[in-house]
Write a structure and sequence with these properties.
This protein has a 4-stranded antiparallel β-sheet. The chain is α+β, with helices and mostly antiparallel strands and 444 residues long. It is built from 15 helices and 16 strands. It has a domain of 160 residues: Butyryl-CoA Dehydrogenase, subunit A, domain 3, CATH 1.20.140. The longest helix has 30 residues. Helix 8 runs antiparallel to helix 13. It binds zinc ion (ZN) (2 copies). The site of one zinc ion has 8 residues, from loops. One zinc ion binds next to loops.
Length: 444
Amino acid sequence: MAASAYNRFLTDDFAACPDCDLLQRLPVLEPQAAAVCRRCGRELRRYRPDSLNRTLALAAAAATLYVVANAVPMLGLTVVGREAETTVFGGAWHLLQNDQRLVGLLVLFTAVIAPAVQIALTLAVIAGVSRDHPPRWVARLMRLHPTAQTWSMIEVMMLGVLVALVKIADYATVIPGLALFVIGGLVLLLAAMQASFDPAEVWRRVTWVGARDSSLLPLELEATDADGRAVGRSALELGLERCDTCGLVSQPVGAESGRCPRCGAAIEFRKAEAFQRAWAFLIAAAICYVPANLLPVLRTTTDAGTDSDTILQGVVLLWSPRGWPLSLIVLVASIVIPSAKIAALAYLLITAQRGSAVSFNQRVRLYRTVEFIGRWSMVDVFVDTFTAALIQLQPLMSVEPGPGLVFFAAVVVLTMLAVESFDPRLIWDPAIGRGFATKEAGYA
Ligand SMILES: [Zn+2]
Ligand SMILES: [Zn+2]
């Protein structure tokens, strides 16, 4: 029987923290107020009044700007009577045609495809849940939503284009195109769209696939430790699983993990093979890190010959009384962040695997920081992409991406995949059964 394969569940008044798995009852929220996890401080829910209408308006505006941004030139330059210009797509296209297919595909995906998918998904989800009986595909689209959001990197591209613009300004007159201003607006709109979107509101309306059975209550959410202090309990400790897609907390049927009664996604107590997968991506990233820094990322050809620059040489070249802030951005984004990320992830994996029972909160915060800043390392990929797309002034001067760029892009992507495969709840799991008082540990 298909129906019996679905779990029994708790109502949405309860939430299990996605970062530390603490099960807690949520308070009734005032408009714009947020409930945060009382152990690790992660935001669990925010009440956004009129979320669907606002998000719809912002998404429609973003869709319009997106079309304009991709239809008109973003950057142009003139030098000794020669002119050149490029669009967003033109940057990726140049790489695809010049033996840099992997990087070209990555730029195409993060700067063109993922943002379009992000906007289209948002529009489709809102159109779907606005019906009287929201169709099942809304749940399926919602599953893709966080992925599209992670890989949509318009704001990183914007920064990369600005750096490229200043870089090129040293030897040519750069003309910022209309698309550059439109993209600036698009960055703000996408941020506002994300901020106004309330997944909980969508899930309240989605048609349930399982039976409405929340007979799990009453649960003992609090226990007392040996010293008589009140301690919280994780969902795992109570035999409950949190759905990664919709956040519903349910009890698996029998020994199997089962399916979420609301959205139908397969659910597990912890991400499958989190350690193995995270280690595999991390080690691959560490290996790519070496050629990424030793091989040239840009090759400049002039009538005087060909010059190759590694990332570090690029940073040094940008360093000038005027250009040092940009040089610093590239240094931090391309050298400091990737190496710090690899070291931080290795530390998190090792301590979690050893069941370390100290500094839980600092480690979860470190994980969130790594998750948040990872995408910004893509800046140098965009700088090099648009520099190469624009400076094609043969025989005067031309710039091509070097073999280091694909390794550098690989480091960024592999560390992001390592972060996504890891499960931060594994950091907190050693706290189970140790009488870990939530209040001492958590309140910010
Ligand atoms: Zn938490
Ligand atoms: Zn679900």
